[in-house]
Design brief:
The chain is α+β, with helices and mostly antiparallel strands and 319 residues long. 24% of the residues lie in helices and 25% in strands. The longest helix has 21 residues, at 42-62. The two termini are 31 Å apart.
Length: 319
């Protein structure tokens, strides 16, 4: 939908004096704004992030997920809720990461339709704090912007320029490749396959190496080995990662690529294959499962928020 300038039209009450004929007034013509504007100004984004940070801090202090809405929703609220459950039972688990008070980058689109998406990179004041890529969404004009997800930036990760300040960025469609090397939804689906199948995935070479993939695959290999070596034939082990429908967002970068953020649902399952075998559960898993031992099967689910840099179609760079 084109953005139209709201021109103030003064309606004149013309009083005819004497016998002068009135000239007909021309029909008003709306003028299209030549410069696309970002959906949030810098001061508006300041306000949104401030309210998100305040609401998150309030919920964190009480370890109460009921205090997260309306400013923290979706996968962000799911992850926080699990964190509260663990910390109520294990107070020594450490402090949850707050919304950083230092803004490193704003990625604000020109898009005028709803739902709207904005990204921001923030960092807390601590020396060892890592930057976080926050995803803010607005479902409809009268709804508030909420933090729906966030991803921790890996060491050494840099973001490309998102366009001149004050102009806003493009919003590539998530279902189409268009000017990108891959459609954003395909990027997320292929990465899910890589996490599921490791180096055997046909898509493994399409992604640059990253620490998250290395960590996940190492954990899965360790679990598989533990289940099959400690008690050969006692357990079966399976793993799957799948993109969550409707949870892919993309914003354009100055080089013609895009920052894509997607949500994966991961599942690791262990099943008892021999009568009498038991699955011990400890720490976080025991708290979340509500038991220290599984007699038949155990499935561990995870919410995985992953951000990607997708190159333009004419690039030979991997995602």
């Amino acid at each position: 939908m084109s953005r139209l300038t709201a021109a103030a039209a003064a309606l004149l009450a013309v009083v005819a004096l004497g016998g002068c004929a009135e000239e007909p007034l021309p029909d008003p013509q709306p003028q299209e704004d030549a410069a696309a504007l970002p959906v949030l100004t810098e001061s508006q984004l300041d306000g949104v992030l401030g309210e998100v940070a305040d609401q998150l801090a309030t919920a964190d202090a009480a370890l109460d997920p009921a205090l997260l809405p309306p400013r923290v929703t979706g996968p962000a609220a799911e992850l926080r809720t699990a964190g509260y459950t663990v910390r109520r039972a294990l107070p020594d688990k450490g402090v949850l990461t707050p919304v950083g008070d230092e803004r490193l980058a704003d990625i604000v689109p020109q898009e005028q339709e709803w739902p709207r998406t904005v990204m921001a990179v923030t960092q807390a004041g601590a020396e060892d704090a890592v930057p976080e890529l926050l995803l803010l969404t607005q479902a409809a004009p009268r709804d508030p912007f909420t933090m729906a997800a966030w991803a921790t930036l890996l060491p050494g990760a840099t973001l490309p320029a998102a366009g001149p300040p004050g102009e806003g960025v493009t919003v590539p469609p998530v279902e189409e490749a268009g000017s990108l090397a891959l459609a954003p939804t395909d990027v997320v689906a292929r990465y899910a396959d890589v996490l599921t199948n490791g180096p055997a995935s046909q898509f493994a070479d399409g992604f640059a190496p990253d620490a998250f993939r290395t960590q996940v695959l190492a954990e899965q290999d360790a679990e598989r080995t533990s289940a099959t070596v400690a008690c050969p034939g006692c357990f079966t082990y399976s793993v799957a990662h799948a993109p969550r429908a409707g949870n892919v967002w993309s914003l354009g970068t100055e080089d013609g690529g895009a920052i894509v953020l997607g949500v994966l649902d991961g599942t690791r399952s262990l099943a008892v294959a021999v009568a009498g075998a038991k699955l011990p559960l400890v720490d976080d898993l025991a708290v979340l499962a509500g038991t220290t031992e599984a007699l038949n099967t155990a499935s561990f689910t995870s919410v995985e928020v992953v951000a990607y840099l997708v190159p333009p179609a004419d690039s030979t760079d991997p995602v």
